[in-house]
Amino acid sequence: MTVHLTTPVSELWKVGKVTAERLKNLGIETVLDLLLYYPFRYDDFSQTVAIKDLRPDMAVTVKGEITHIANKKSPRKRTSITEATVQDDIGDTISCVWFNQPYLTQNIPPGTQIALSGTPEFGYHNTLQFTSPQYEKIFSQKSIHTGRLVPIYGSTSNLTQKQIRFLIQTAMEAVSEITEWIPEKTRKDFKLIGRQEALKEIHFPTDTPSLQQAEQRLKFEELFLLQLRSQHIRNQSQKRAAKKILFHEKEIKKFVTSLPFELTQDQRKSSWTIIQDCEKETPMNRLLEGDVGSGKTVVAALAMLNCALNNAQAVLMAPTEIVARQHFQSFKELLSNKKSSSVPIALLTRSEHRLSHKNKTFTKQEVIDTIADGTAKIIIGTHALIQDSVSFSDIRLTIIDEQHRFGVDQRKTLKSKADEMPPHFLSMTATPIPRSLALTVYGDLDISVIKEMPKDRKPVITSVVHPGNRNTTYEFIRANTKNGKQTFVICPLIEESDTLGVTSATQEYEKLSKEIFPEYTVGLLHGKLKPIDKQKIQEKFASGVIDILVATSVVEVGVNVPNATIMMIEGSERFGLSQLHQFRGRVGRGKDQSHCFLLTESYSPETKNRLQALVQTHNGFELSQIDLEQRGPGDLYGNRQSGLPTLRIASLTDTHLIEQTQKAAQQLFKQDPTLKQFKELKNLLEEFEKKVHLE
Ligand code: ADP
Ligand code: MG
Question: What is the bridge-based pairing of β-strands 134-137 and 113-118?
Fold first, then answer.
């Protein structure tokens, strides 16, 4: 039978129902899938030695003839033991044992020429022996299990390494059908070997340098495809025209001087870049990245004000009602300092609707009408904004706060609310992510970063608290509360079923309000509360009625209460560093010294190191780099939107290669914007874009 790339594995020799099912669990259904199932490491048995030269603890291969082989039962008769003696050309012998493979006596009877790979150790009588070595009959054909760099596959779903290797060897028969899709020039510029060769070498490497070349090539192609997609999306969006937003310099300068604080350098720089982007006739597509509390809101306010001064609408969508309302409040304050005008601001969430410019209440319909007829210039809200009943008159700028909390479709819908022309678009995120990840995930966006924190911020003093010190922490909170300061207590999800963490938060609330702090007002905030109740609790906390707020981890990012100076996090080892850093960012917003207590019952060194990183660094980028290395991109880059394909071989921490592939993708599009010379690549890209749908 001839093996083709499209041949189902179930038609391969020796693949029955069970094996096919197991392969399917690994995502392998065709011969091509097999070839693309890369090893996750290699055992180096490339060194073949004479038996007399064997040393303990040295991974090697020996070759010889089986002179004796027999089964015996173990003392407890549970396991069967196969003992064999192998003699090499020189006449030296070594003994081997295998467990629970009684068929070996049939398989490799005396007289078999055999290669053994493994690490010999001292057995009985202080002689060297092999325990469960890899073995392979010596034919003229190239070996795949011994005497070489032997591939080891990650998950095997109950298949043996030998079975997988054997199947991949069979699949190799079709490797000549593999087509090259990286253009020759790119391959030359970046010194990449061909695809067929790379696939051969990745499974059965000739030697270490060849293996490295194969890895390089396959990592490159994986990241290259991601970058091609980003560039493609970027090119598409650049083709469309947008309506300019002119810079109203005088008014904006007035706004800046009216602020109760001085903008940081980074805030100025990002604002300026955004203003320039918006003056163009191609739509802005920018990400504003800055730690919690770095002051992104005012940058958004400035851009939106500038848009409103053009007599056009600007929309800001926030992830929760609380955040939306807070933005509404701070926009009102920020913009009211500017004496010259009163820009009409609208707030629209599921349970709330308000207008800033008149001191009376409006019905929801009235607010919606004001948005539709263009009276409201700055519109702030939640998902409620993307409902069918809401339409706009002239959106030129859309901003999404905490962009990772929205799905791709939601972002698209918001953009599509602008009628004919795409609006300028700004995403904001308080999850600083490492540059390598940003280049991949946001390859199609321009990025502005706010690194510098506002001047008068004191870093939050962070400490890890074990159960023995819990009471000391409570006393600290008591003293703090006595001084009129407020505290957050964050509870993790304990049980899987309790997806909102309501149980643990409720229990904590009961304990704190009844036993620990009966003299103070304790509040409870979780996702199952009605929006109106959430709002009430939030208001009470913001106004200082509630001293201690117990909240679940799933609700409400971005809450701004400067009087809160303590953040206590239960079960802190359950969170990613970036997430802990986000929680911590909710305190330390005022002038007073703030504290963050990381409670944990775990004493594992791993937990210790992770939490210690948080004690020592206040830089969100550094913490996210650690998260990326230790926990992968999922944590940093929520499941919902991730859209990132699982990488087979490349790593998202490899900044250098990511930069190279980005360069390669840019070059290629420059050379041939429609990719008409590169049919193979174009098809691949189209298929890929269908499969992975990211913005
Ligand atoms: P985030 O980037 O997390 O959205 P915010 O925009 O909510 O941060 O800002 C946090 C707090 O810092 C707000 O109270 C805001 O008024 C204040 N702030 C912003 N910029 C500055 C600055 N340059 N100097 C002092 N305080 C500032
Ligand atoms: Mg914010």
Answer: antiparallel
How many A from CA of 292 to the centre of ligand 2? 7
Give the span between the Cα atoms of 539 and 523, in whole angstroms.
Answer: 11
Looking at residues 376-399, what average pLDDT do you find? 93
* Calpha distance 303→330 (Å, rounded): 15
CA gap 538, 548 in Å, rounded: 11
Amino acid (one-letter) located at 55: R
Q: For every residue of 417-457, which 3-state class applies, written as one string?
A: CCCCCCCEEEEEECCCCCHHHHHHHCCCCEEEEECCCCCCC
Do 82 and 116 form a contact (C-beta atoms < 8 A)? no
Dump pLDDT digits (tens) for 8-56: 999 998 889 999 999 999 999 999 999 999 999 999 888 889 999 999 8
- The binding-site residues of ligand 1, defined as CB within 6 angstroms of any ligand atom, are 261-264, 267, 290, 292-298, 430, 454, 560, 589
Angle (CA) 422-428-434 rounded to 5° is 120
Q: What is the mean pLDDT of residues 213-232?
A: 94
Q: Against a cut of 0.85, is the pTM above it?
A: no
Which tokens hold the place of 534?
Answer: 């959430």
**Residue bearing the CA closest to ligand 1, atom 18:** 295
Burial grade of 646 (CB within 10 A; 0-12, 13-18, 19 or more): exposed
Residue 450: nearest ligand to its CA? 1
* CA–CA gap between residue 157 and residue 23 (Å, rounded): 7
**Cβ neighbours around 495 below 10 Å, total:** 9
For 195, the enclosing helix (H) or strand (E) is helix 195-203
Near ion ligand 2, which residues have CB within 5 Å?
558
CA of 267 from ligand 1 middle (Å) equals: 10
**Rg of the chain taking only CA atoms, in angstroms:** 32
The three-class DSSP label of residue 562 is coil
Q: Are 508 and 489 in contact (CB under 8 A)?
A: yes
For residues 568 and 490, the answer to whether their CB atoms sit within 8 Å is: yes
- The burial class, CB within 10 Å (0-12 / 13-18 / 19+), for 26 is middle
Q: Is the pLDDT of residue 230 over 60?
A: yes
Burial (CB count <10 Å: 0-12, 13-18, 19+), residue 39: buried
Neighbours of 423 (CB within 10 A): 29
Query: Ligand 2 centre and the CA of 594: distance in Å?
Result: 19
Substitution site in 261, 271, 581 for ligand 1 pocket (most atoms within 8 Å of beta carbon)? 261
Q: What would you measure as the largest C-alpha separation in the chain, in angstroms?
A: 102
Atom number, ligand 1, closest to the C-alpha of residue 585: 3
Residue 528 alpha carbon to ligand 2 centre in Å:
23
